[in-house]
Specification:
Delta-60 repeat domain-containing protein; 1 helix; 42% strand; mainly beta
C-alpha cells in the first residue's frame, strides 16, 4: 500500500476543491502561537548562542522542554525552556548549563534520555570513543556515575577488541556516510543510551570497523554506575554474529521494561531486528523460525530504519527511508511483542509514504502518542530543488495518514524553518515540538511547536 500526501483520487472533484480551499485558509495556523514568536524559538536567546545547535529534545512536566545543544566553541549545553518558550531561569544558571566533559573531552551528542528519578543521560561519540554523561535534575554531574564519581563515562574501541589482533580498528558512523565521527541523529549507528526503571541499566550499540570490508555490530550494557555489566554476555557486551564477514551496521537499540534488548542492524542489504535476553543470549522465542531475528523485507532499491519506539504492548514501531529510482520515501514498520508483523498495520506489511510537493525525505525522529498515533519528523526537499525544509507527519496506528493533522494532508511542511531536522517530541496534549538548525536567521538553532 502506498500512502500519498494528497487526497484520494476516488473522491469527487467538488469535495477535493472544498478541501483545497479549506486547507489554504488554515495553512498558517499550524504553529502554536503561544510559543516563542509565532510558534518558533530562534537562537540566540539569553545564555544560548545562535551556533548552539539543538541535537535532541525531550518533554518535561508542566510542558517544559529539555534539549542538548552542540556549540561551535566545542561545548555541549543542556537548555531548559518554559511552556511559552522562554528560558527556565530555575534550571542551572539562567536556564542552561554546560555538559560536564572535563575528563572525557568534547563529543558530538546525539541522544538525550530522561530517567525516572529526574536525572538525564547525554550520549554521543567522537573518533574512537563513545561517551555518556549523567546529570542530576539541576544539571550538575551525577556523583554516583563514572569511575571518578564525576558523571562521565567513556569507552574506547579497544575496551572491546584486542589491539594486537585488530590494529587500526575504529568506531564507524554508518554505511551511508562512511565517516568515523557520528554527527547526525539521522544516520546514527548508535550511542542511543536507554535507561530502564528496573535498575538503571544503559544499553548502546555501535558499528566497529575492524578491516577494509569487515564491519561488526557491538551491543554494550552498562550498570547503573556506568561500568560494564558483566552479567550481559559475560563481559558486558556481545557482538552480533553472522554466517560470514559481510558488512553489518547498527541502526539503533531499544531496552524493554523486562530487561530484554532489541537491536536494529543492517546486514546483507536488509534491516534486521534481534532480541537478547538479560544475560546477553539471543532470545530464540523472538522473530523468525526460532532465530531471535526479524528480517524486514527490502522494497525497491534499498531501505533502512533510523528511528524506533516501543509500543505499550511490547511491540515496536520503526521508521526510515526507502530508495527507488524516483527518489526516497518514508518506510514504516510495526512489529508485535513476539517479532511478527502487526496484522492491524498495513495488512501486516511495511508501509511506504510520500509527501505531495516534497521529495527525497530523510527520517530523523519518531515518537508515539498515548493513543497509538505515530509522529515522524523528517528533512525533505522542496520539489526538485535542493532546498531542505522540516516536515512532521502523523499516522494512525494502522499506518495510514492521520487526516485530522495538517489540514487534511496528514503532514505539515514548515517552509519557514528550512535546514536540518534533529529531534521530535510530543506533549501530553499531543502538541508536537521539534528542534533543528538552518538558515532561518543565518545558520541558527531553532525550536518549533505546532498544534495537535
Amino acid at each position: 500500500m502506498l500512502h500519498c500526501g494528497g487526497l484520494s483520487t476516488s473522491m469527487p472533484t467538488w469535495w477535493s476543491l472544498i478541501m483545497s480551499q479549506s486547507q489554504a485558509k488554515i495553512a498558517g495556523n499550524f504553529y502554536d502561537q503561544t510559543f516563542g514568536i509565532g510558534g518558533v524559538v530562534t537562537f540566540p536567546i539569553d545564555n544560548v548562542a545562535a551556533s548552539d545547535f539543538p541535537q535532541a529534545i525531550a518533554t518535561l512536566p508542566q510542558n517544559k522542554l529539555l534539549m542538548v545543544t552542540t556549540g561551535d566553541d566545542t561545548s555541549l549545553k543542556m537548555v531548559r525552556l518554559n511552556e511559552d518558550g522562554s528560558l527556565d531561569s530555575s534550571f542551572a544558571s539562567g536556564g542552561s548549563v554546560v555538559v560536564p566533559t572535563s575528563r572525557i573531552g568534547y563529543f558530538y551528542a546525539n541522544s538525550l534520555d530522561l530517567l525516572p528519578d529526574d536525572k538525564f543521560l547525554v550520549s554521543g561519540a567522537i573518533n574512537n570513543t563513545v561517551a555518556i554523561v549523567r546529570q542530576v535534575k539541576d544539571g550538575a554531574p551525577d556523583p554516583s556515575f563514572g569511575d571518578n564519581n564525576d558523571g562521565q563515562v567513556s569507552y574506547n574501541v579497544y575496551n572491546f577488541l584486542d589491539s594486537n589482533s585488530y590494529p587500526g580498528a575504529s568506531f564507524h558512523s554508518s554505511e551511508a556516510e562512511g565517516e568515523q565521527v557520528d554527527k547526525s541523529t539521522g544516520y546514527s549507528s548508535g550511542v542511543r543510551g536507554v535507561a530502564t526503571a528496573l535498575d538503571g541499566q544503559i544499553v548502546l550499540t555501535r558499528t566497529i570497523k575492524v578491516g577494509a570490508s569487515d564491519f561488526r555490530v557491538i551491543v554494550i550494557r552498562l550498570s547503573e554506575n556506568g561500568s560494564l555489566d558483566e552479567t550481559f554476555g559475560g563481559k558486558g557486551y556481545v557482538f552480533i554474529a553472522s554466517a560470514s564477514s559481510e558488512e553489518r551496521f547498527s541502526r539503533g537499540v531499544l531496552l524493554q521494561q523486562d530487561g530484554k534488548v532489541l537491536v536494529f542492524f543492517k546486514y546483507n542489504g536488509y534491516v534486521h531486528v534481534i532480541r537478547y535476553n538479560q544475560d546477553g543470549s539471543v532470545d530464540i522465542s523472538y522473530g523468525d523460525k526460532g532465530t531471535g531475528i526479524v528480517t524486514i523485507p527490502s522494497i525497491n532499491l534499498s531501505s533502512t530504519l533510523t528511528s524506533m519506539a516501543l509500543k505499550p504492548d511490547g511491540g515496536v514501531v520503526a521508521a526510515g527511508d526507502n530508495s527507488s529510482v524516483s527518489g526516497r520515501s518514508t518506510l514504516l514498520v510495526s512489529l508485535t511483542s513476539n517479532g511478527s508483523f502487526s496484522k492491524d498495520f498495513n495488512e501486516g506489511q511495511p508501509a511506504l509514504s510520500v509527501y505531495s510537493g516534497y521529495s527525497n525525505n530523510v527520517v530523523k525522529s519518531l515518537a508515539l502518542q498515548d493513543d497509538g498515533r505515530i509522529l515522524v519528523g523528517l528533512a525533505v526537499f522542496v520539489g526538485d530543488s535542493r532546498e531542505l525544509v522540516n516536515l512532521v507527519a502523523r499516522y494512525l496506528p494502522d499506518g495510514s495518514f492521520d487526516t485530522t493533522f495538517g489540514g487534511g494532508k496528514g503532514f505539515i511542511a514548515f517552509d519557514a524553518t528550512e535546514g536540518f531536522f534533529r529531534s521530535l517530541a510530543v506533549l501530553p496534549d499531543h502538541r508536537v515540538v521539534f528542534c533543528g538548525y538552518g538558515r532561518v536567521s543565518g545558520l541558527a538553532g531553532h525550536v518549533v511547536r505546532c498544534l495537535a
